[in-house]
TrEMBL record:
Biased composition, class Acidic residues, residue ranges: 25-34, 67-76
Source species: Salisediminibacterium halotolerans
All copies of domain GerMN, residue ranges: 135-221
Low complexity composition bias: residue spans: 35-66
Keywords, alphabetical: Signal
InterPro entries in alphabetical order: GerMN
Region (Disordered): 24-99
Signal peptide positions (record): 1-25
Designated name of the protein: Sporulation and spore germination
Compositional bias annotation for Basic and acidic residues: 79-92
Plastid is among the record's keywords: no
Amino acid sequence: MKRTYGLTIGLGLVLMMAACGEDNANTDDTEPNENNEVTSNNENTENNNENINENNGNSLNNNENNNNEDETEENTENNNEHNSEENQHNDDNNDTNEADADMIDDVSLFFIDDQALNLYRVPTGETVEMSAEGAEETFEMWLEGPESEELSPIAHEDTELDYVEFHDNTAHASFTETILDSNVGASTESMLVDQIALMMEQFDMDETLILIEGEDAGDFLGHMNLSEPVEAGDPDDYDVFEE
C-alpha cells in the first residue's frame, strides 16, 4: 500500500514537471513571435517614412518645375514686350529718317533754245529726293522734252534711261543706244553732255560718267571721248529760261 502511494506521488510530480516545461516552451515561442512582430512593424514604419520622403521630394521637384515654368513664361513675356518696344522704336526712327531725307525743291532741267545757241536752266517746280531714284525721275522729265516751243531737246526722241547710280561723288548715267542716233554737231554734242552733268550736279555729283547700255560710251556722237567722267559746271551760271 505504501509502495503504491509512493508511485502515485512520483507520477504526480512527473506530470507537474512536464506541465511546467510545456508552459516555458510556449513562453519561449511567444517571445520570438512578439519580437518578430515589433521588427516587422519597425521595418514597415521605415518604408513608410522612405515613401513619405520620396513623395516629399517629388512634390518639391514638381514645385521647382512649376516655378521654372512660371519664370520662363514671365521671361518670354518680358522679351516679347522688349522686342515689341524696340521694333516700334526702330519704326519711329525709320519714319524720322524718311521725313528728314534730303530733298531737292524745284529741281531744274536744261535745254537749248530753238536756234541751238544758248543753254538754259528750266525750273520744274517739282521736288525730288536727293538720291539715285530722284536723279532718275529728273532724267525722265528731261527726256520728255521742254514744254516751251522756244526750247529744243537734243537727245533723240526714242532715247530712254537705263539707270542712274551714285559712286562717291560720281554719277553713272546709262542710256539706251538710241541716244547715238541724235542728230548733233560738235557744239550741240558738247551742250548735250553739259546738260546731263549739270542735272547731276544738283545731286552733289561733281562729275558724271555717261554710259550706253551700261558700257563705255567711247567717242559718243563722234566729237567727244566719254571714256572718263565729265566734270559738271555750276547750274547757277546759266540763265533761267523765261518766255
